[in-house]
């Protein structure tokens, strides 16, 4: 039986984009089975693992290694230009915007900057159907601020979500008068404290694990996001009418986000 096979890479946010891409190809091709290959995650210097089962039911998915994915064929422009079976960032828009035949598909990419608004909305819709935490309420008058440190302080992300960005978004939140409490979600408390102190607000840190942080971002009525895919998906999957979202337009120095998040204000 045909399958949609996907190579998982990176942390949770990247994995959600990859799973979402797999769900879309499954929908377009009417191939019901998805095979997620997480064998490469153990090769990262930073600790990486398959986080998806914590957040999604994975109703029609299995975790299975596929040797053909090790060839990285979807990342080759010459193949992606002519083949719909090998799907990466180069050809995802073309393949996902049409009805495609039921056959094996092999996905390898990040599927972020290649998304337009229509595909992102469709991806969010299929992900929500499989998301485990759809019945959570909104925490009123709380503004969650996501500050990513660590590898996001390198040149690849320089100047995107810096102190000036947070000061600008905080001014907008204060003008709207929608937040009584600020909670910072971060992987780098030292760096986050430096920014928060310049913001001159009373704040507390989220002290939970990754799931707790994700759900806090999801449930907070107001959110100031970083350019992290973790915060993008927490916000999008947790959105309910009335939520207010501020987020950078760029994902990296080179890659922009070509879609607007639910509730996002400029």
UniProtKB/TrEMBL annotation:
<protein>
    <submittedName>
        <fullName>Alpha-1,2-fucosyltransferase</fullName>
    </submittedName>
</protein>
<dbReference type="InterPro" id="IPR002516">
    <property type="entry name" value="Glyco_trans_11"/>
</dbReference>
<dbReference type="GO" id="GO:0008107">
    <property type="term" value="F:galactoside 2-alpha-L-fucosyltransferase activity"/>
</dbReference>
<dbReference type="GO" id="GO:0005975">
    <property type="term" value="P:carbohydrate metabolic process"/>
</dbReference>
<keyword id="KW-0328">Glycosyltransferase</keyword>
<dbReference type="Pfam" id="PF01531">
    <property type="entry name" value="Glyco_transf_11"/>
</dbReference>
<dbReference type="GO" id="GO:0016020">
    <property type="term" value="C:membrane"/>
</dbReference>
<keyword id="KW-0808">Transferase</keyword>
């Amino acid at each position: 039986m045909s399958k949609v096979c996907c190579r998982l890479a990176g942390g949770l946010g990247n994995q959600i984009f990859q799973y979402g891409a797999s769900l879309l190809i499954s929908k377009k091709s009417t191939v019901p089975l998805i095979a997620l290959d997480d064998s490469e995650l153990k090769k990262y210097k930073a600790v990486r693992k398959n986080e998806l089962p914590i957040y999604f039911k994975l109703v029609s998915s299995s975790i299975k290694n596929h040797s053909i994915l090790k060839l990285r064929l979807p990342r080759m422009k010459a193949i992606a230009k002519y083949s719909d079976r090998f799907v990466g960032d180069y050809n995802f828009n073309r393949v996902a915007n049409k009805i495609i035949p039921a056959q094996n598909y092999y996905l390898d990419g990040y599927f972020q900057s290649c998304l337009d608004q229509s595909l992102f909305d469709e991806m969010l819709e299929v992900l929500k159907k499989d998301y485990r935490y759809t019945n959570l309420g909104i925490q009123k008058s709380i503004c969650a601020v996501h500050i990513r440190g660590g590898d996001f302080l390198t040149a690849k992300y320089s100047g995107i979500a810096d102190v000036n960005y947070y000061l600008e978004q905080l001014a907008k939140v204060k003008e709207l008068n929608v937040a009584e409490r600020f909670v910072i979600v971060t992987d780098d408390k030292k760096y986050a404290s430096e920014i928060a102190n310049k913001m001159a607000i009373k704040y507390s840190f989220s002290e939970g694990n990754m799931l707790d942080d994700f759900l806090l971002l999801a449930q907070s009525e107001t959110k100031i996001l970083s350019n992290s895919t973790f915060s993008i998906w927490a916000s999008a999957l947790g959105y309910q009418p009335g939520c207010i979202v501020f987020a950078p337009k760029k994902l990296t120095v080179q890659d922009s986000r070509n879609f607007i998040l639910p509730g996002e204000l400029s």
